[in-house]
Amino acid sequence: MKNNHQYKPSVSEKISTDDLRFQADKELRELDAMCVNESHLQHRWYYNLKYMFTGILFGIIFVKAEVISWFRIQEMFRLQSFHMYGIIGSAVVTGAISVFLIKKFDIRTIYGEKIEFHTKQFNKGQIFGGLLFGTGWALTGACPGPLFAQIGTGATVISVTLLSAIAGTWVYGYFREKLPH
Fold it and tell me: pTM value?
């Protein structure tokens, strides 16, 4: 409350520079993201077990559908088989229908949080990034999704690809401000 003396904000009213930096960084990340749904809910550690089991199930499905097969990936890039295009195409259609339904019926998370979609402006960096990603995918026979499933099946040489993906992510983060966005 203000009185005749100079107003001094309380501790709870002060905004630290860290809070301002966090907010500015969050706003910057939102510009680069297609869909930002950052939950602020706090859960105990065992709530994350459902994600581990989902990931294991997803990996098993990848193995059974031969999505992680180097030979299937090579067939796709040589235009010799429809198998991978069918899987990727069905995933795109499923995703498009899901986004449509989420928007149309204002579907929320299981915890009641709103799901927001942000438009992303096209730029030439996306072309270069896509070409680089596709080249790495064709050369290694692995994209980031099935890396862990490939390692889990005993293809431990894929660890090199995993470390390369981590290194590439770090390099991008380091040079991000200098790259075209």
Answer: 0.64
Structure tokens that stand for 28 in this block = 């910057």
Domain enclosing residue 43, as ranges: 17-178
**Inside any domain, residue 8:** no
Q: How many domains does the chain have?
A: 1
Of 130 and 24, more confident: 130
Residue 6 burial (10 A CB sphere; 0-12, 13-18, 19+): exposed
pLDDT in tens, 76-120: 989 999 999 999 999 999 999 999 999 999 999 888 888 888 888
- What's the gap between Cα 116 and its chain centre? 15
Looking at the domain assignment, is residue 166 inside a domain?
yes
Contact between 145 and 62 (Cβ < 8 Å): yes
- Examine residue 10 and state whether it is found in any structural domain, yes or no: no
